[in-house]
Fold these 2 entries.
Entry 1:
Amino acid sequence: MRIAVSGSIAHDHLMTFPGRFADQLVGDQLHTISLSFLVDGLEVRRGGVGANICYGMGQLGASPILVGAAGADFEEYRDWLDRHGVDTASVRISEVLHTARFVCTTDADHNQIGSFYTGAMSEARLIELKHVADRVGGLDLVHIGADDPEAMMRHTEECRTREIPFAADFSQQLARMDGEEIRYLTDGAAYLFHNEYEKALVESKTGWSAEELLQRVGTRVTTLGPRGVRIERAGRPTVEVACPQEDSKADPTGVGDAFRAGFLAGLAWGASLERAAQVGCMLATLVIETVGTQEYTLRRGSFMDRFTKAYGTDAADEVRAHLL
């Protein structure tokens, strides 16, 4: 199964604040808020939702195709992704703009405040999926993640026109989209990804009830933080998968991307939705234990030991066959 992942490609600047953001907020002065946080550390890492998801899929041997735009400063990043099983030949390189930047501060409660510089990502709208499909011999699924909004619209339209199944995953772009845009990006999606808050926001902005949304998408995947994930399909029993026990909580950045990577890898293997979600939750656990979104290493023996402990021998036997 050939899966293309469209989404942002970025460098992450991750900082940690030893206090709590909530302690710095004055209720009756929020309309004039002006805060500066003295942080303890800075980590500069590779990131962007498209690249993060592809890195995870590559670690699982799923051979993802990255679709996005970056700057001339992408070469070292490209080498890294190529070395970890990602097809980067469809990444557009801007002649004038830098690769996007994500600057994020995390407090002691793992709350986050972040800013995103678009940069070369704005040129993702110029990418034609047909060229990608022709190069690799066709596409079975396009995951449309957070990216330049016009690129997300164009990729969705092209998937519909060319009858390529697609997954809708707005994540960070949901806040700036209106109901009409969300309805357009959602209707007819094979998969719809979001967390609990985004689920409520999608329903509020579109005016569609939970039941109406299930009639418009094939599968609705809602991540539930430490409680795992819920998978819903119209007329089918709900599937719920719990998260494995993490060894530590180092950094929540990229956990959702890792889940999607594992889930999409499971789909590429032809696994069931439950098994795909289990793989996603296991991979997400590795990321929360690591600072940075692509700094973890998937050691197959350890991965399978933990997967077996969390989900049982039968589930592990199915997954092991794809990791050998």
Entry 2:
Amino acid sequence: MTMKATSVQAVQTQRNRRGIEFRRKCAAVASSILIMFAIITPTTAGAAATTTLVMDSYVRADRATSNFGTSTRLSTDGRAYIWRNSLLRFSVQVPAGEHVVSAKLRAYSETSTTSTEFVDVFTTSGGWTERGVTWNNAPARGTWLGKTGGFASGSWVEWDVTKGVNPKGGEQNFKLESNARKWIGFKSRESSNSALRPRLVVTTAPDTVTSTEAAVVHGWGASVAGDEFNYSGAPDAAKWNVYNSAGHAGNGIRSPQQVTVNGSAMVMTGTPDGTTAGMGAKFANQKYGRWEVRAAGSGDNEYHLVSILWPDSENWPCDGEIDYAETTGDWNVIQFFHHYGCSNSQTTASKPLDVTQFHNYAVDWSPRGIVGYIDGLKWFEDTDPAHQPPGPMHQTLQLDWFPDSSANGAGEMRVDWVRVYAAG
């Protein structure tokens, strides 16, 4: 996402697009702010990658130029001058968007070992071929991954090789060596019984999803207040003052019947004749803090989605207004309007965005200035001390109607949650 430069020059005009902003609230008395805390869903392992045994072989010191790529067994041996080491290559295909969390190399033994006789597994390079590798040209051992001993003949032997497997898969090469002073064999890729051939069992999990919440990305900590809208019916009366008044600038009406909570989101609906809704929070009234909402909207362009910090004093425009997410007749563009001073001067930002899809909109208001975020990325900033609101503010949510000469249609605003955080 490319951040659009913010206008740093005040717009010295009374913004006719909204008329007198105090009428935004009309008879409704908006109350405090409401906001929320960030949630990250943990990922769990569960999916299996596709693994293929591409080739295997063994090499022996006493026949240093011989190749054993067609053998039906793999051999390891720790006796001096008879050393035997085995090589295996797998191809691992990891599902898109996932990564390896566990990898186990398994081979079916043809020999038993005591508790002090081990077979070690190492990473190795891919510079070998099944029909060409010999003791003399075999790749050297790489990272030691583990050892297993004390196993019975006719059983599966397992090594944890997770740290030797690329999290995104690809070609994986392993080398087996032994300290045992005897021959230890395993079924190979050429075994007539395909069920007993070596295998690499890989488990994957979803990649960590990068959060798009500003609170998570910038470490704002736990929320101090909020509404997750995880109930049904009217908005919680202890948290919200739902407007019952004339609409913005006298257009249409704001009716409590046009806002409901459906168990997972707050939904405001606007009718073609301008019956719509708005509401203000009743708590967390404060000077400075951080607010974040997850919202989307759709419908007729005459309806504008608005998330606002409004002055508790109701003294508009002198005490300011921060519209940190607002549409103005186009559901493909989001706007930021920071109003300040009795002349209703403004700094602004505009960004192309599909507002019909849910996005996270946030504002960080501190003595250092006002910063706006979309999906965790900064897109607005005003650090001029002369532009600071003078007193506490609170959150409002509104679906405002701006009738024009086009045919009238319905509109909708949906909010998953609202969260407020302490000032940083």
